């Protein structure tokens, strides 16, 4: 009997996938056991228990023999936790396949949730979210409140990871309200995650509040492990509050447990913000080893997040200043790989991430750093040339405005007989209208708001057709442009001659000159002078003090 038992154990260790072999023989000692026995005797905390793996294989074999797909799904779930990580997705797929052959919507929802957790652990967050959403479709049709909120928590985690912080906050708040009375660990997890969201949205005081609540609740629940996570969260929060020494202290205190738990995510985050805190304190040599830990995590496990990307930018700038081309190129090249990973895993988030070094520049720099700088210098030269040209152009336009004189109205009757004939309007009428036009200009009637052609014709004592023709012929402008030109000329003279108007806003200047809106005023000023009102006023002020 002993030899037979050892043989079975050897078969368990031979291949982690052996549980799926149809020729597995259930030991005599377990052949009469029911499903409840297997379920009760598997403790998920004992991950390396050979005995429990034997139970799991027997459970699966019994379920296959009896074609009990619900029990098959539950047995596969055990293998997810009892075997190598590389095989977890395989077992998760088998678990889902088995569950879908049942009519148990609660079970189907639960296995999709478990597969979502497997994807999340594999850093495949979008696939995790897909599975959580499918799970939600099934579980929402049940009355199992615990499972419902467990799924909401999983979806909230994904939304946080992808940067949908406001959506995540709403979900975490729901979870907080439910788990407070139902599950102490889930309640602490919800507090911790909600605090992280508040930090990412700049609500640092609320983050601190969540962390303090979590620490107090942890003591009440006697949960020592979560205390380090709240300290870790507050360390990151203190960095954003610019309390760098406190951030370093708290994150350093939290690090040991992250290492013990093999929690790469929070361990790497701690290194990053310790490094950033030292960097902010101008202690660059102390910061560098911590910032380089981000690259270590990426090289070993391809772990990276958009916020951690900044470590590469800092390292690139540092080694550029040190004139260390080898390390500069290394971090440039690695950053290119980082961006490829981020583009794949954060397709919904990548557009929101501000990149100081875009991918095209990285490719170019990888090929030839020297060429990269030539292009940058060329671009800067062109920009400078454009700015210099614009400066001298604006200067010339300003001087022209300062030196110009407003032309006085000429006698239109004696010198424009031919024009009057061309207009096919009675010369005496033209003369009368022109006199009224001079009066219109002299009395600054053009400053009235909403000066229309109809209003003009009335003031000139003629009809709109004649008014339009005469203005076009003798002022060489359409009616609207003519009015606008007079308004701008008026405001230019005010600005040149009276200092008080130089303190007016564009809105006030527009109202002073009778424009219907600030936008119309600034556009008209620019079109007529080539300068913006703001630039013209600034030059007037400097001209005054020179």
From TrEMBL:
Domain HTH araC/xylS-type: 427-539
Protein name: Tetratricopeptide repeat protein
SUPFAM superfamilies: TPR-like (SSF48452)
Family, as annotated: Belongs to the Rap family.
Taxonomic lineage of the native organism: Bacteria, Pseudomonadati, Bacteroidota, Flavobacteriia, Flavobacteriales
Keyword set, alphabetical order: Cytoplasm, Membrane, Repeat, Signal, TPR repeat, Transmembrane, Transmembrane helix
Coiled-coil intervals: none
Subcellular location: Cytoplasm
SMART domains the record matches: HTH_ARAC (SM00342)
Signal peptide: 1-19
InterPro entries the UniProt entry points to: Bac_ResReg_Asp_Phosphatase, HTH_AraC, TPR-like_helical_dom_sf
